[in-house]
Amino acid sequence: MYYEEKKKNKEKLILYLLMVVIIALLFILIIKSEVGDISAVNQYQAQKVNFDENDGEEIKPQNSTNLKSIDQSVKAIVGISKLKQSGSSIFVNNAEQKLGLGSGVVITDNGYILTNQHVAGNKYSSCYVTLDDANTYEGSVVWSDSNIDLAIVKINKASLDYLPLGDSDDLKLAQDVFAIGNPLGLDFQKTVTKGIISSLNRTIKIEEENQNVYMEDLIQTDATINEGNSGGALINTEGQLIGINSVKINNAEGIGFAVPINIVKPIINKLIAGGKFDEAWLGIYGYDKEAIQYLNSNIKIENGIYVAQIASDGPLAGLDIQEGDIIMQIDETKLNKMNELKKYIYNKSPGDQVKLKLQRNGRELIIDVKLAMKS
């Protein structure tokens, strides 16, 4: 009897242990299934984050580079020379000065090219443009401004690769950028260098022909810019043109500058729309608060444009404005940078009326002026 009871207890124990094992296995399977479902959900959500709900396009994180756009951008970079044939320019000392070598950027498919004024020359002058296919065309300078070192050249050629324009007002510090141009002449044409935006709204002093020239509101970058890069493109990671490489501090490493693209957008738009640009003229030479410190450290302004000189043959001659006045506002637009005033005038036409709000010795004055045609 005792033996049979012991045997029954042993069978119950085995059955109990078997049930525990089965329950444990079921529990493990349930947990594994739930973890798998969570993993799948997380994977789906991770994928979903990378796509826009509206069009399904991938949303790239900040500073991610669209290499296809960069590769396409190179095709829109041209060589510009004041001579028709420069040969192997790398072996010529001071090639940029002696041969007039530089870079340019095609900005429309019908042959408008943006570059530096010191590369292409003054309005109505000629230069030679070498395209991506190695063919050279004679170009005519249809607009230039030495104060911001920009010029627009037109060649008789259609169906060109061109760069889309970005927004230079939306730039951020440390944003990735690329400089493209022809350093040291055409031997190293279409060189791409990478850097970041080191600073914005820079003002620098340059000595030209024994005179001091001040360039304002520049983009500073550490992307390598050598001689011959002048007039080339500064682009963002999507291949959009955000600036034109202009000057470099020769005694410093890793410091280059570009003129922001937004200042010339009104000119480009008018050229596209009507094939010409009649430039309006206010007739002043002025400086913002960043530049005025170079001229006179005793002059302190927080806002507005300091009037340094008034053209005697300009539309302001004879009106109640004088040197030392501060232009606080033009029409309804408040002013803090000289390029803001330039951009506003570029949007106007000769003969348009504008209203200037001035500040003089703590007093506010308002004058109306009719813009003239710039010759």
Helix and strand arrangement:
Layout: H1 2-49, H2 67-74, E1 77-81, H3 95-99, E2 102-106, E3 112-115, H4 117-120, E4 126-130, E5 136-145, E6 150-154, E7 176-181, E8 191-208, E9 211-221, E10 233-235, E11 241-248, E12 256-260, H5 265-274, E13 280-281, E14 284-287, H6 289-295, E15 305-310, E16 326-330, E17 333-334, H7 338-346, E18 353-360, E19 363-370, E20 372-373
Antiparallel strand pairs: 1-2, 1-4, 2-3, 3-6, 4-5, 5-6, 7-8, 7-10, 8-9, 9-12, 10-11, 11-12, 13-20, 14-15, 15-16, 16-17, 16-18, 18-19
Average pLDDT, all residues: 81
CATH hierarchy, class of the largest domain: Mainly Beta
Distance between the termini: 127 Å
State the helicity in percent bands: 10-25%
What is the ordering of alpha helices and beta strands? Answer: HHEHEEHEEEEEEEEEHEEHEEEHEEE
What key phrases describe this protein's structure?
Thrombin, subunit H, six-stranded antiparallel barrel, 3 domains, Pdz3 Domain, 375 residues, single chain, extended, alpha+beta
What does this entry look like structurally?
This protein is of the alpha+beta class and about 375 residues long. It folds into three domains: about 1-35; about 60-275, Thrombin, subunit H; about 280-375, Pdz3 Domain (Roll). About 25% of the residues lie in helices and about 35% in strands. The chain has seven helices and 20 strands. The longest helix is centred in the N-terminal third of the chain and has 48 residues, at about 1-50. Residues about 35-60 and about 85-100 have low confidence and may be disordered.
